[in-house]
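From the shared-data thread, chain only:
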Amino acid sequence: MVILTEVSDNEIKTTERTRRIAFGIVCTVVALLVLWWSFDLFQLWLKQGEELSTKQQELSGITVENAELEQKRDALYSPEKIEQLARENYGFVRPGEEAFAVPPPAPEPVRLPANWPFTHLAQTLGG
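Structure, as tokens:
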């Protein structure tokens, strides 16, 4: 046996309006969450773009430097450059040549100020 109760039109309209409001709130919250999530992704995308351009600049600089180093390396393999470096750095001489070494100049003597603790030290040292 089923008991039926009568519901007024006013109550039906109220529950239907409540459902619509709840549905609207849920949709708004979901839309805000999607926007927030996509904003984070957009910021991440921008940051990765900046990092990519920075890394590309670094790569181009390294490529240029690498080319310069390869040129230097190729120049170092020439017999003239090897001989020049051996003469400059290691004192290499050919048979029949003489090598001379000139010592650096002597350092200047230390000049002490004429103030109290230094006058006694200068007198002790004979200066």
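The chain has a mean pLDDT of 85.
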